[in-house]
Design goal:
- By secondary structure, the protein is an alpha/beta fold.
- The chain folds into two domains: about 15-190 and about 230-250, NAD(P)-binding Rossmann-like Domain (Rossmann fold); about 195-225.
- Helix content is about 40%, strand content about 15%.
- It contains eight helices and seven strands.
- The protein has helices at about 25-35, 50-55, 75-85, 110-140, 160-180, 195-200, 210-215, 230-240; strands spanning about 15-20, 40-45, 65, 90-95, 140-145, 185-190, 250-255.
- The protein has a seven-stranded parallel beta sheet, sandwiched between helices.
- Helix 2 links the parallel strand 2 and strand 3 (about 65).
- Helix 4 (about 110-140) runs parallel beside helix 5.
- The chain is globular.
- Bound molecules: nicotinamide-adenine-dinucleotide.
- Nicotinamide-adenine-dinucleotide binds near residues 71, 98, 120, 146 and 196.
- Nicotinamide-adenine-dinucleotide binds near residues 96, 98, 120 and 193.
Length: about 260
């Protein structure tokens, strides 16, 4: 499905933007969208080589690709120090890195998989924010986190992922209140998006194509999955001065799913 992004603009010219999870999916689309608005982008991901490839393919000069595990504080500190050294500081942090976690009923969910889901999705979001905030305060920047529509509604067999993303929504709001007026903090709550994450979740399904179509049908607006760029467009809005009076919001980008 081809969704065209609006003409490249100038909304992030002169800004250094850190995007986690930038190697693929929504993170890659976000890195491309913020670069198209003039940002210099630091692409951070567990997949270091893929992050570097995305960075090298971006139109702005100076973009970096760096490997890290967002759940590991030493990795986070090292990666942010490298961005600071090479790009001079950070204006915008966009936390996209995340994992789907286990799909089991709560009682059958392995404890280590539940812990890892919280560690990547929630602790990783916290660690990145904690260590970027000195720059964001100094430069009156902002944070955009990627939560999920499943932070807002319950879903069967999501007792690890749903709570991790609900935590991201609450963390977003806490930061917005702690750091006003210096730093805005917002998140998006996507519906189902066509990325490697969703295809890997459905890999073991007896009929993956039918399951994918079922996911599409949860969105009243379109009856299809979102494309990554459709989430990236909302992230760019929140990251830019177009959202100068917006903080503490959890914006559904879900084709009306949570309106039902
Ligand atoms: N795809 C969807 O339907 C959907 C819906 C709602 C929310 N989301 C959220 O959007 C974000 C991106 O999802 P996606 O669908 O693009 O997923 P994806 O699996 O395609 O991409 C996720 C990226 O994050 C990276 N990553 C994973 N763990 C990491 C870690 N510990 N440290 C650093 N990088 C790590 C991966 O290497 C990958 O490049 C996630 O937070 C996800 O929960 C996705």
């Amino acid at each position: 499905m081809s969704i065209s992004f609006r003409q490249p603009g100038t909304r992030l010219v002169g800004k250094v933007v850190v995007v986690t999870g930038a190697a693929q999916g929504i993170g890659e689309a976000t890195a491309r969208a913020v670069a198209a608005e003039g940002a210099v982008v630091a692409c951070l991901d567990l997949q270091a080589d893929a992050a570097r490839q995305v960075a090298e393919s971006l139109p702005s000069s100076g973009c970096l690709g760096i490997g890290l595990d967002v759940a590991d504080e030493d990795d986070v500190v090292r990666a942010i120090a490298e961005v600071r050294d090479r790009l001079g500081g950070i204006d915008v942090l966009i936390n996209v890195a995340g994992i789907a976690g286990p799909q089991h009923r709560a009682g059958e969910t392995p404890v280590d998989e539940w812990d890892r889901t919280q560690a990547v999705n929630l602790r990783g979001t916290f660690l990145m924010a904690k260590h970027c905030l000195p720059d964001l305060v100094a430069r009156r920047g902002n944070i955009v986190n990627v939560a999920s529509a499943l932070a807002l509604v319950g879903w069967p067999q999501e007792s690890a992922y749903g709570p991790s993303k609900a935590g991201v929504v609450q963390f977003t709001k806490a930061v917005a209140l702690d750091y006003a007026p210096d730093v805005r903090s917002n998140c998006v709550c996507p519906g189902a998006v066509r990325t490697p994450m969703i295809t890997s979740v459905l890999r073991d399904h007896p009929d993956p194509d039918a399951a994918l179509a079922d996911y599409g049908s949860i969105h009243p607006l379109t009856g299809r999955l979102a494309e990554p760029v459709e989430i990236a467009q909302a992230i760019v809005f929140l990251a830019s001065d177009d959202a100068s009076f917006v903080t503490g919001v959890a914006l559904p980008v879900d084709g009306g799913f949570t309106a039902t």
